[in-house]
Amino acid sequence: QALVCLEFRGYEMLSRFRFAIRSFSRLASTSSSSDEAIVSSKEVRLFVQRCMLAVGTQRDDAAVLAEVLATADERGHYSHGVNRLEMYVGDVHSKMTRTDMEPRIVKHTAATALVDGKHALGPVVGKLCMDTAISKAKDVGIGWVVCSGSNHYGIAGWYAIRAADQGLIGMSFTNTSPLTVPTRSRESVLGTNPLAVAAPGKDGDHFVLDMATSTAAVGKVEVNLRKGIPIPSGWGVDSKGTETHDPKAVLDGGGLLPLGGTEVSSGYKGYGLATMVEIFCGILAGAAYGPNIRKWLSDSKEANLGQCFVAINPDMFAPGFTDRLTDLMRILRSLRPAEGETEVLVAGDPERKHLEKIDYLGGIPYHHTFISALVSCVLFGQRLLYM
Fold it and tell me: Fewest CB within 10 angstroms: 207, 254, 294, 338, which?
């Protein structure tokens, strides 16, 4: 009876992958141009859910992951959206990411909490942590929550925006696999260690800073490699620690440069910020940190990432926060542009423009090579079922 159930489950999972292949193969052939295919946001979410359900993810957890990945693509952060789906599929299948465990709070005060992520999907852990921080901020003015035992959680901004949408200042930090080379080094020992800060403005016009503490995320280097184009100055170094424009050299034995690039252009400041994030995450939460975190895309051991989530209630401070923030952003946007530029932007404006583009197009634009990569991801998942 157990073998019959296992065989039925395998058939069901295989059917899910085949359905996903047919769906995206069809979408790839209905392009609005020779370079891009427009995919509805709803279909993107369903695609992610189908793939994750196929490898045994709980339905609610798959929905959370789908929301985070689709939101990244909607905001123009393609390096952290559906581009990462194959990694999530592989980690769940290898059981480095657990689908049979739920994160839980193991220590808390009125304003703080420590969460054991139980190696669940990063967005599932992160959602619990951010929602806990939000609840505490509403009660006592601030919530500071850290977790260990987490995994890649998508864009940091998704969690910070979750707080801003409720009138709070939100912050989110995570450590990552060692990909960044500290200033004067040739070894990758720190992660891209992103951070996000979102503050509520009037009518949903939030300030949203969402950035890596490296000059660029590794996903952006991968995107350039896939497109066959060089990377800009300041993005990465080769295996000797020498700056390079070759994305392959960065990914094959090299590493990312910290924010600012080389030492002469103040890369040591990005190095310091990356270390700060590591303190908030790996060190404070008792998670893996620095070179102790598993290598990027490795499944040799559990990731055990550390993450930090903060919510602050501005009503506990001087009144009129939202009005002043909105006025400040108005001042910044109304500045005279430099020669050759058309406008001055505030953090979150590029993403807002991308969201407007999606509304105009009726879906998320994907390059055809990316659509092909997604189909390859589904085929990868299908192969896993036979391993």
Answer: 338
* Spatial CA neighbour of 169 closest among 157, 161, 180, 181: 161
For 304, the 3-state DSSP assignment is: coil
Q: What burial class does residue 284 get, using C-beta atoms within 10 Å of its C-beta: 0-12 exposed, 13-18 middle, 19+ buried?
A: middle
Per the rule left: phi > 0, alpha: psi between -120 and 50, beta: everything else, 76 is left
C-alpha dist (Å) from residue 359 to 39, 74, 84, 330, 355 = 12, 10, 24, 24, 6
The one-character DSSP state at 154 is: S
Contact by Cβ (8 Å): 115, 104: yes
pTM of the predicted structure, to 2 decimals: 0.89
The token pair at 23 is 């769906």
Residue 180: which H helix or E strand, with range?
A: none
> Which tokens is 243 given?
């700056």
Per-residue pLDDT of 45-81, as tens digits, reads 999 999 999 999 999 999 999 999 999 999 999 989 9
Residues 38-51 have pLDDT tens digits of: 999 999 999 999 99
CA–CA distance, 213 with 215 (Å, rounded to integer): 6
Report which of 41, 45, 71, 23 is spatially closest to residue 363, judged by C-alpha positions. Answer: 41
Question: Which residue matches tokens 């542009």?
Answer: 337
C-beta separation of 146 from 114 below 8 A: yes
DSSP letter assigned to residue 83: G
Distance CA 116, CA 139 (A): 23
Percent of the chain with pLDDT over 70: 87
Please give the Cα distance from 347 to 191 (Å, whole number).
23
